[in-house]
Amino acid sequence: MEIVNTNFLILFCILMAVVAFLYSSVGHGGASGYLALMSLFSFPISVMKPSALLLNLFVSAISFIFYFSRKEFFKPKLFYPFAITSVPAAFLGGMMPLENSTYKILLGIVLILAALRLLGFFINKENEIKPINNVLAMAIGFAIGLLSGMLGIGGGVILSPVLLLLGWATIKETAAISSLFIFVNSIAGLSGYFIGDKTFPSDSLYLVPIAVFGGFLGSYYGSGYFSNKVLKYVLASVILIASFKLII
Question: CA 15, CA 4: separation in Å to the nearest integer?
Fold first, then answer.
């Protein structure tokens, strides 16, 4: 693969599998983690966005299958208000080109949010569940979708804290909803990206089996009762480093 320095290819692939494992364990596709790694390994900006969305598609689909199989976790009434507005917004965002400096700053901010989520912030007690406000959810969905399409993420890293902070879902419900949310937004974002006559980095296809392997294991354990705090802290540290690298 030309997009990764041969000397660091094995290390990158191992870290990417770990990222897919950890993110899928909480119902995420891992785009923010992939983007953090790509930044650390000096990927071209033009490669980062479509590659992350592609990997997101596969890993989020696997996560949703595992979480949906436990039907008590997925709540359609919590998913649809966000998705109705986020999907068209993600399509529009995918068509929007960003200056490299703007892209780096926005992505750096989102990565900090992702790291804080991994470190255990934004967790609401599960016995404080409140009814969802559909109008507010649709407005939030549009904003998340637009930003997701622009940056090349599925939006789960933003949606999860929102659901937990507002008390609209439990942790497991949040994981199930986020996984499908990420999947549909990734499709919309990629579609918008291609409409904009962008070329796709074909080397990214070689990364798919690695992400699928990590995503399968993470979803299997995460949909049960698995939690590995040490690895999550390590990943959060990597993401924070990458975010500061992007912003500074």
Answer: 13
Other CB atoms within 10 A of residue 174 CB? 28
Contacts of 199 (CB under 8 A, 6+ apart): none
- Does this model's pTM top 0.90? My answer is no
Tell me how many helices (H) and strands (E) the chain has. Answer: 10, 0
In one letter, which amino acid is 228?
Answer: N
- Per-residue pLDDT of 147-181, as tens digits, reads 888 888 888 878 887 887 788 887 778 878 888 89
Distances (CA, A) of 210 to 6, 18, 93, 240: 17, 9, 27, 23
Q: Which residues contact 101 (CB under 8 A, 6 or more apart)?
A: none
The pLDDT tens digits of the residues spanning 10-35 come to 888 899 998 888 888 777 788 888 98
CA angle 157, 160, 85 (to 5 degrees): 85
- What is the domain partition of the chain in residue ranges? 8-198+205-247
